[in-house]
Specification:
Elements lengths: L1 H13 L7 E4 L4 E6 L8 E4 L5 E4 L2 E2 L6 E6 L3 E6 L8 E7 L5 E10 L6 E3 L5 E2 L3 E11 L4 E6 L2 E3 L2 E7 L2 E11 L8 E7 L7 E6 L2 E11 L10 E10 L6 E4 L10 E4 L2 E4 L8 E9 L2 E9 L4 H6 L4 H37 L9 H7 L16
Parallel strand pairs: 1-9, 11-19
Antiparallel strand pairs: 2-7, 3-4, 3-8, 4-5, 6-7, 8-9, 10-12, 12-16, 13-14, 13-17, 15-16, 17-18, 19-20, 20-23, 21-24, 22-23, 24-25
Organism: Gasterosteus aculeatus aculeatus
Family: Belongs to the nectin family.
Subcellular location: Membrane
């Protein structure tokens, strides 16, 4: 019995408490567990980072309504900390009161959840040419949150700044750019990522850009002719939309309001005639400026246009002459080649008219007998 008790005491005195680190989100609940494999009724104790005793066995030592006992036995001591604060972070100590006392540390990590992001710096509306600095702020994160910018769906780089405020961090990211009309309607999104968040926090602002107008005139006919229906449209680009659109002809008012009908941005001439020739101008403005566009109208006589149409007989005659000349050139070239070839044969055959065969003719041909073999020609 004495040996058995001595063995138990030795095992109890030789072991250390077992703990594990805990990570919890600010405002959440942390369970701190301490256990031993063997205990002969020796007490366990939990202490906070300030070395204040929280529980000694099942006895509560610190008056804090957030800390409560979960389980107490000779082999296990579990306590719960509710509504965890950033200030609760630190090393907690579990002690086994043997001789000497055995202790083990457990670190409680408290994550600070960042606040919802906020974008500042938007001016509504922005003017073309302005320089904007957009700033996205995410306060109260621990560790520091990460901020990303998106222009529509494409990520763009901002300038990040981190400031410590007590145990948490305030993160700011700025984006600077010059505004042009292509920015009108573009969505800028600030995304905040943090280990405490299952999904990023996001906030979006849509940029509205005001810019001066630009006008162009489109027309319904390429070659306007007398008697036709003709339409001009004043296409305007600007924000705000430039209105109203004013039409004029040759620097004055439209001369025939019965045939020249204005509907919004369109000018319609119901029946064209020669008196409609001239320069037509549309003009529109918004609070940033005025723009205009011009179109020079020339009305063609359909009969004169038909008379000056393509002469198919003339085209046919030209084609026939070209074909005839081409045939003549081919014939002349053929005769030239034939005569050139004949002359060469006659020259080579000089002195061989009376030869009984081809070999003798070549040998008797004008020239040196030494080169007779060089003058042989074979025909198959």
């Amino acid at each position: 019995v004495s040996r058995s008790l001595g063995s138990k005491v030795h095992r109890s005195q030789g072991q250390f408490p077992i703990t594990q680190n805990v990570t919890v989100v600010e405002g959440g609940t942390a369970n701190m567990t301490c256990r031993v494999d063997y205990n002969d009724n020796t007490s366990l104790q939990w202490s906070n980072p300030a070395q204040q005793t929280l529980f000694f066995g099942d006895k509560k030592a610190l008056r804090d309504h957030r800390i409560e006992l979960v389980r107490a036995s000779s082999q296990e001591l579990i306590i719960r900390i509710s509504d965890v604060l950033l200030s609760d972070e630190g090393q907690y100590t579990c002690s086994l009161f043997t001789m000497p006392v055995k202790t083990t540390k457990a670190f409680l990590t408290v994550l600070g959840v960042p606040g919802r992001p906020d974008i500042t710096g938007f001016t509504k509306p922005a003017m073309e040419g302005d320089v904007l600095t957009l700033t996205c702020t995410a306060p109260g994160s621990k560790p520091a949150a990460n901020i990303r910018w998106f222009r529509n769906d494409k990520e763009v780089q901002g300038t990040k700044e981190v400031n410590a405020t007590g145990k948490s961090f305030a993160v700011r990211s700025s984006l600077q750019f010059q505004v042009d009309r292509r920015e009108d309607g573009v969505a800028y999104t600030c995304s905040v990522e943090h280990v405490s968040l299952p999904n990023p926090y996001m906030t979006t602002e849509v940029l509205e850009v005001h810019y001066a107008p630009h006008l162009e005139i489109t027309h319904s006919l390429i070659i306007p002719q007398e008697g036709q229906y003709f339409k001009l449209e004043c296409v305007s680009i600007g924000n705000p939309i430039p209105e109203p659109v004013l039409w004029s002809k040759d620097g004055g008012e439209l001369p025939d309001i019965e045939r020249m009908i204005v509907e919004g941005r369109e000018l319609t001439i119901t029946t064209l005639n020669k008196t409609d020739n001239g320069t037509y101008r549309c003009e529109a403005s918004n609070h940033l400026g005025t723009s205009s566009a011009e179109y020079v109208l020339f009305v063609y006589d359909p009969n004169a246009f038909a008379q000056h149409g393509p002469d198919h007989a003339l085209i046919g005659g030209v084609v026939a002459v070209v074909v005839f000349i081409t045939l003549c050139l081919i014939i002349v070239l053929g005769r030239y080649l034939a005569r050139h070839k004949g002359t060469y044969l006659t020259h080579e055959a000089k002195g061989a008219e009376d030869a009984p065969d081809a070999d003798t003719a070549i040998i008797n041909a004008e020239g040196n007998h030494v080169h007779a073999e060089e003058k042989k020609e074979y025909f198959i």
